[in-house]
Amino acid sequence: MKQEGCLRDTIIINFPKFSCATPLASVIGFSQLRSASxxxxxxxKLSGDGMSWLTKLKQGLQKSSSKLSEGLVGIFTxxxxxxxxxxxxxxxxxxxxFGSATAANLTKELARVRFGKEVSPEEVKEFLAEHITxxxxxxxxxxxxxxAKQPHVILMIGVNGSGKTTTIGKLAAQFKExxxxxxxxxxxxxxxxxxEQLKIWGTRANVPVLARETGSDAAALVFDALEQxxxxxxxxVLMDTAGRLQNKDNLMxxxxxxxxxxxxxxxxxxxxxxxxxxxxxxxxxxxxxEVFGKAAGVTGLIVTKLDGxxxxxxxxxxxxxxxxPIHALGVGEQIDDLKPFLAADFxxxxxxxxxxx
Length: 357
Ligand SMILES: Nc1nc2c(ncn2[C@@H]2O[C@H](COP(=O)(O)OP(=O)(O)OP(=O)(O)O)[C@@H](O)[C@H]2O)c(=O)[nH]1
Ligand SMILES: [Mg+2]
Description:
By secondary structure, the chain is of the alpha/beta class. It contains 14 helices and nine strands.
């Protein structure tokens, strides 16, 4: 029987409400789904073992802060602030990916206030945290779901492997926790594995996933998904896209098309275009913001894998250069490893001055 709103060739899991879903059991068996969901609850309990997000952030930024501390101790122990020390400080900041403008400004300001005086590594850390915080402060903006835009559409974009799909899973769990209805859309139609990965995250977060077979047109899928979400009064639609290198013009053009097509379904969509950046790639992130920004109108950033790098200064470089909102930070691979971006906490943990959280 044909039912209104049915999307042909579309697979929807985890959401009995969708009338047109291919029988769920043929995609992922109900029993599988139930046990996976139980596992995910257990997993959430385990990973959210009372550890505060500040502790987690601190741990996540450990590599950056210890590298920086090492550098500062080497430069400033029992030493007056002279030209050579300032030069070394600037190099240390550059190595931590703060970017040339920020490294130069911070060094110049320290020279202005302390030149010729003895200064300890701890004092330099305090100075850095204090001066980095106001650079970051204006960019603190969590992904706020606009109730008036039902659904609120978030398009996730970025280069291959930056953490888009994982971040979607983490965000889905957070929105679900806030009591919102969420739909995930497997807009990475290039690889079968990408669809499978998103389904696993859908199951963990206990939200539906809308997918089509590999090779389908991503723009057509996102259009249909948005129409479906409107009919089903979904609060938030998180759209995954295939990773793409920013120098591949045809793939970047596809992103522009996805955006245009979404606007046909809702002139105000997408409401957020989030560029997911892998912190371990350091300064390469700068070019990604520029090119993705032109192709898809990036509205905000999420920086991932801060736990795996000493290059956390990239967040400051991005803030200084683009002034785009930073919605959240990825500090691990687990479902609760997406942390809010708070300027002072981030700055202090980045340079390693925070008291134990
Ligand atoms: N340590 C760490 N690993 C992460 C983080 N975010 C994602 N990852 C890992 O990075 C790898 C790539 O993540 P995906 O979410 O598949 O990245 P993607 O951008 O969707 O990749 P493509 O779809 O291939 O473009 C996976 O192994 C994730 O577990 C993070 O914050 N910290
Ligand atoms: Mg992916």
